[in-house]
């Protein structure tokens, strides 16, 4: 079938070959082989359908045209990613160091990895994954987040000859750890639900890879809207087991509402993960809630689930240092921690580039410290950073602050790797000038 279409659609098909499985014939298989593409996943069992059974209203009202030759085009990936080379991280930069304004943009100018074999061969600690989702919030912007961060690497010099230590700790995560840019997850830009499965597949693919010390590669997902947290967290519980991972959820909003009946959005993923049993409510810790949502009923629901929460009202009453210590203590009790960081947890004075800003949030010093400490003092096995919408900020301010949030976490993971997991570690050299 595909071959017959080629005269008319050669360019499109060569760039984006796709056909739904039920229409693939032998000719098509041969052609796909020639082109070196394969569907990202086929026939995998996800919880989605089971969850839907109780919610008949979520069936799509507008059916999709499965005969469209471009149906599913977005989820095909090249099948020759390791052809003609040894597995391992690939340095794609011409120069051994660089600035934010030159070079080929990758997260922090890191080498690229394309396959699990690359992660394994490189004994990679952290793999960044871009996920350019936008539909989960109902209006656009967060899909620009990953590449904004890629090009913002040069807020500071980045890697190789020019990487620098985090000043407070004097630890350089780029020297201590092997990190890579794992590229982007496929996204269907018109469907959160379909995208979820592809992202989950990719996150699991990263988290499954075992390192030489017995730990697993840490997926570090850069979004994208917050609907991503469902596949991000389901992807790690696929590896670590349902009920074995605790989530620290930084956000102005509690994200457990089925808005307009949608079960897949940037505001419903918490409820879905708890309902499906990925994360028991008691293993949920929310930080930074404020504004006008959740309401009383929602707080009641959170209590029923056994969730722990630290809204900004508590910060006002007890002060940030006390709340910070409680969050760290709760995180340390967990065997595995996933951090889901909505950038709107920070005050819009510092991160205005986000879809649903809410005044009264964390200050940079508070955000940087808690992120570094959590990543050093608890066993973080996955992180996502979501809702950075750089086009809503005509300056570099939002991306700069979010870049720093990521770097603080990397510093924490590097500290832990070096065996430094004591409370609030800072180098004596940088915190004390040596005079009495
Ligand atoms: Mn939010």
How would you summarize this macromolecular structure in one to three sentences?
By secondary structure, the chain is an alpha/beta fold.
Structure description:
With 436 residues, the chain is α/β, with parallel strands linked by helices. The protein has 2 domains: 77 residues, no CATH class; 321 residues, Arginase, Chain A, CATH 3.40.800.10. Helix content is 35%, strand content 12%. It contains 15 helices and 10 strands. An 8-stranded parallel β-sheet has the order 4-3-5-10-9-6-7-8, with helices on both faces. Helix 7 runs parallel beside helix 8. Bound molecules: manganese (II) ion. The site of manganese (II) ion has 6 residues, from loops.
Stretches where pLDDT falls below 50 for ≥5 residues? Answer: 4-22, 50-58
Number of helices: 15
What is the name of the CATH superfamily of the largest domain? Ureohydrolase domain
Q: What's the alpha carbon Rg, rounded to whole Å?
A: 22 Å
Q: Strand order across the biggest sheet?
A: 4-3-5-10-9-6-7-8
Blueprint of the fold:
Layout: H1 2-15, H2 26-35, E1 37-39, H3 48-53, E2 76-78, H4 116-121, E3 126-131, H5 145-151, H6 173-176, E4 179-184, H7 192-207, E5 218-223, H8 229-240, E6 245-250, H9 269-275, E7 284-287, H10 296-305, E8 308-310, H11 312-318, H12 320-332, E9 336-342, H13 364-377, E10 380-386, H14 397-417, H15 428-431
Parallel strand pairs: 3-4, 3-5, 5-10, 6-7, 6-9, 7-8, 9-10
Antiparallel strand pairs: 1-2
The structure holds manganese (II) ion (MN).
Residues 251-253, 342, 344, 356 line the site of manganese (II) ion.
